[in-house]
UniProtKB/TrEMBL annotation:
Pathway: Lipid metabolism. It holds the Pfam family Acyltransferase. Residues 72-186 form the Phospholipid/glycerol acyltransferase domain. The lineage of its organism: Bacteria, Pseudomonadati, Pseudomonadota, Alphaproteobacteria, Hyphomicrobiales. The keyword Cytoplasm does not apply. Keywords: Acyltransferase, Membrane, Transferase, Transmembrane, Transmembrane helix. This is 1-acyl-sn-glycerol-3-phosphate acyltransferase. SUPFAM superfamilies: Glycerol-3-phosphate (1)-acyltransferase. InterPro entries: Plipid/glycerol_acylTrfase. Coiled coil: none annotated.
Amino acid sequence: MLAFRSVLFNAVFYANLIVQMIVFTPVYFLLPRKKAYVIAKNWARSNHWLFKVIVGTTFEIEGLENIPNGGYIFAPKHQSFWDAYALLPWLDDPFYILKRELTWIPLFGWYIKKQRMVPVDRSARGKAMAAVMDRTKAEMESGRQLIIYPEGTRRPPGAPPEYKYGIARLYRDLQVPVVPVVMHPGLFWPRRKFIRQPGHFKVRILPAVMPGMEPDAFLAHLIDVMETASDRLLVETAEANPHLLLPPTAAHRLAELKARAA
């Protein structure tokens, strides 16, 4: 049954993406940029409904009161494709710095171009990277929210942290609050696997780190705050979902935490 539900969800998920992108394209490109964002946000909401109805997976968000007004850096843990889109409905006007190849994809690339995402050539240096930072600053000054994953890429739940220094540079250069976010969707929607597991999990938005710290001190603080909260939430999620098939990284980390608490 688990395999059947997983296959069905994956099929419906991608069909939902394709159908909505085609059906709503005329409306999307006729609307003003920010108003058009409602289409992507409603797509995210429809996926939450599909995840609940087909797989039996639900979630809740804690700490929405920690989100500041205006421009800030939204810095979530990244474990799954789920967290690439799932929180869009709760953000006012978010944008990403993303690899420029994504803008070349027909239709999808047009969608992200309209939302003024900031493309980057990962092999670029010097002036090209300076132009990326100038674009990013301009978007932030207009009150938008930059979504950046501090570890850079998807990491399995419980894996040792691998934070990149880029988040510290952005914190220094942009001079805006950083909002850390921890969650474990990778337990239910694992990376590089088709299995989707039922259950319930929490997204925990932590208090913002205000600008003004030295970059090295900021990064050390961010790692400490996020990893402490992530460990606590991993234990809570595993205890609330005893049926879960845990990946080795999560099982190993839970054993370490239980041994430490004993």
